[in-house]
Amino acid sequence: MEYRQLGRSGFRVPVLSLGTGTFGGGSDFFKAWGTTDSGGASKLVDVCLEAGLNFFDSADIYSAGLAEEILGHAIKGRRDKVLISTKATFRQGSGPNDVGSSRYHLIEACEASLKRLGTDYIDLFQLHGFDAMTPVEETVSALDQLVKAGKIRYIGCSNFSGWHLMKSLAAADRYGWTRYVAHQAYYSLIGRDYEWELMPLGLDQGVGAVVWSPLGWGRLTGKIRRGQPLPANSRLHNKSVIDNGPPVADEYLYKVVDALIAVAAETGKTVPQVALNWLLQRPTVANIIVGARDEAQLRDNLGAIGWNLTAQQVSVLDSASATTLAYPYWHQRGFGERNPPPV
To answer: Mind listing the pLDDT tens digit for each residue in 177-235?
Structure first.
């Protein structure tokens, strides 16, 4: 297993982590992802550890905390062998303070996650989204307080805009507080918006990317192909999943999938393995979160490492997935001498 520095920190993480959104299935939305119970989760953790993957990602809203509980059971007795990431910010109750990134909610959320996970510290604690109702100084100082208390070791954010992240980093630098070292962001061959602003920011500020939904919200599994019906077991049959995920035009998807199929045939790898390997060659990417309903899916995802696509194969995939940038990025790219793309 390859390890990489997480942003501009001394913390090294494996290039793959296992996401626990498939654990529990506590609602219709999460049932579409998976319904892995404690026994199944323990087996997946066994497979991961055998392969050198010791990083597990969760969130308090995954099946209303059930995913964290199941992960806690699965790692019981081997906490010293694993790294745990979890997230907070989104609503976790009906009260006025049961949501957001206030000091009150973050401390409550952290303590609740620690209890569900059965641990006394979290390796990487991330904000699940930006809270525009709370001053960034309150949020970052609360996270710094949790670090100093030994509750969490590193902090990150997720789904931030560039200015959200930069404002938070500036506050941390101004007051000498703990900085974000990770940004958990959506990035895939059919979702390359991350490259426009967040990737250059990550390079400049030393913030590593932890990639969620690297297979484009279940569209790059190799089962969705031009001229073929949606597989019966696809989560994309679920309206809630579609409504809450990134939209992708059919023709664009098929163009990328066609290129993936061609490269997969050249390499002897599967479509998901090629899609994941492409991401591992992108700037700032420190870790990719992979999901797995079962052991077979997990082992296939593990096959994405230990080899690299050629420059020509990367170019084929780049071309197939290229889109017109939004303003001002298309304008900036026109002056590459002063605004070169990330490399």
So the answer is: 999 999 999 999 999 999 999 999 999 999 999 999 999 999 999 998 898 887 777 77
Q: Which domains, from first to last, does the chain contain?
A: 3-333 (3.20.20.100)
CA distances in angstroms from 294 to 107, 299, 334, listed in the order given: 34, 9, 46
Task: Give the pLDDT of residue 114.
Answer: 98
Is residue 269 scored above 80 in pLDDT?
yes
- Residue in this structure with the two tokens 């967040």, named with its chain if needed: 198
Instruction: Say how far apart CA 59 and CA 113 lie, in whole Å.
Output: 8
* Residues 68-119: tens digit of each pLDDT: 999 999 999 999 999 999 999 999 999 999 999 999 999 999 999 999 999 9
The answer to whether 99 and 61 have CB atoms below 8 angstroms apart is no
By the 10 Å C-beta count (0-12 exposed, 13-18 middle, 19+ buried), 314 is classed as middle
Angstrom distance (rounded) from CA 313 to CA 265: 11
The C-alpha atoms of residue 109 and residue 115 are separated, in whole angstroms, by 10
Q: Which two tokens stand for residue 39?
A: 């026994």
Q: What angle do CA 269, 273, 275 make, to 5 degrees?
A: 120
CA–CA dist 316, 311 (Å, integer): 9
Residue with structure tokens 């501009």?
Answer: 8
Helix, strand, coil percentages, rounded to 5, for the chain:
45, 15, 40
pLDDT in tens, 222-242: 998 898 887 777 777 777 778
The residues carrying an active-site annotation are 62
DSSP letters of 252-295?
A: HHHHHHHHHHHHHHHHT--HHHHHHHHHHTSTTEEEEEE--SSH
The string over 51-79, giving b where at least 16 C-beta atoms fall within 10 Å of a residue's C-beta and e elsewhere, is bebbbbbbbbbbbebbbbbbbbbbbeeee
